[in-house]
Amino acid sequence: MKLTNRCLNVLSSITRKLAYHQKLNQLYKHFNRMALALGAEPIVTAKMKDNTKILVDLSTRTERVSFYTGKYDPELITVIHSLFNPNKCFLDIGANIGFYSVSMSHLIRNKKATGHVIAFEPFEGNYLRLVKNLEINNLSKVCKANPFGLSNKSDTTEITLREDFKHGANTGNAAIRTSEAMDEGFKVSPIKLERLDDIWHKDFSENKSIDMIKMDIEGHEDFCLDGGQEVINKHRPTILMEVNKPYYEARGVKLDEQFFPLIPENYNIYKQKGTKWERIESLTVCTTIDNVFLIPQEKLSLSGYHIFEG
User: Fold this and answer.
1) pTM score
2) A Pfam family in this protein (predicted)?
3) Which backbone phi and psi does 242 adopt, to 5 degrees?
4) Do residues 53 and 47 touch, judged by C-beta distance below 8 A?
5) What confidence tens digit (pLDDT) does each residue in 232-275 have?
6) Which of 19, 43, 91, 308 lies deepest, with the highest CB count within 10 Å?
7) Neighbours of 13 (CB within 10 A)
8) Cα dist from 212 to 86, 156, 236, whole Å
């Protein structure tokens, strides 16, 4: 191991113990830039707070913070841990390198439960790292990783390798092509897409019922919902969904008109407000990049769901 990487490991063992503060992220960014300039290997092991390990690339904005903090979306992951029934299925749609898949699989194993995680990641670089991260945590039997994305039709298309890839990384944030203006200057890669309704009946029908879905696919969530109407209406899972307004605006999409026909009956939508989640009547109140929970009314009385108001 290079001396610079040894120094980084010592540093991260200290920074993981610090309380989170946004200004620290800038400090980590400077440390990171200096270490890479001095020749540090960019692929390192992030030791997460739940005792799992994630191979990350320090040259990507999305991944580097976890190396210094041992966390990734800690508030959201804490919430879904409290809601998820570990004896059922968790779908990770847009799994990237596996932060959610590893965490949820680890939860299932720790509880000695019978559930599974099914992950979908269409970009090859991310998929290969996802598989590796499952392997190094001995979670490959808990999580099934699939090298395709979910949409409203079976298709081959291109994905745009966005900001994380500018410095030579092989993993990071990627989005199905949206508009010439948004995609200009970025490389693209071919990917495969399938419909949830098609592949569930073909390959996963023997699995337990779907209790929860995490969906973060950079402005393609509406297509995914459209292609999974039968499965979602049958299983009625809780859905954690990103709302990335710039992608939808680039497509000329009006959020409520597009999404409301795709959300099953008797589902409520919640947006975070402080430590609680407040019911909303329109997706237009979301910030530029936000997260919402779509929850069937019959689940609101279950343990853990008290954080949802209204």
Assistant:
1) 0.96
2) Methyltransf_21
3) -80, 145
4) yes
5) 999 999 999 999 999 999 999 999 999 999 999 999 999 999 88
6) 91
7) 11
8) 10, 27, 9
What is the full per-residue pLDDT of the chain (310 aa) written as tens digits?
Answer: 789 999 999 999 999 999 888 788 888 999 899 999 999 999 999 999 999 999 999 999 889 999 999 999 999 999 999 999 999 999 999 999 999 999 999 999 999 999 999 999 999 999 999 999 999 999 999 999 999 999 999 999 999 998 888 778 889 989 887 877 788 888 999 999 999 999 998 888 787 899 999 999 999 999 999 999 999 999 999 999 999 999 999 999 999 999 999 999 999 999 999 888 999 999 999 999 999 999 999 999 999 999 998 6
Residue with tokens 């299925």: 89
What residue has token string 């019959």? 298
Terminal-to-terminal C-alpha distance of the chain:
54
The β-bridge partners of 266 are: none
Q: Are 37 and 16 in contact (CB under 8 A)?
A: no
Answer positive or negative: Cα dihedral of 96, 133, 129, 91.
negative
In 3D space, the residue among 117, 128, 224 whose CA is nearest the CA of residue 176 turns out to be 224
Q: What's the CATH fold of domain 74-309?
A: Rossmann fold (3.40.50)
Q: Where are the domains of the chain?
A: 3-69, 74-309
- Exposed e or buried b for every residue in 274-283, given b needs 16+ CB within 10 A? eeebeebeeb
Tokens of 177: 């092509």
- Count of beta carbons in the 10 Å neighbourhood of residue 201: 11
Distances (CA, A) of 23 to 28, 29, 139: 9, 10, 34
Residue 98 DSSP one-character state: S
Residue 59 tokens, joined: 């040259």
Q: Quick one: which of 89, 151, 77 has its CA closest to 114?
A: 89
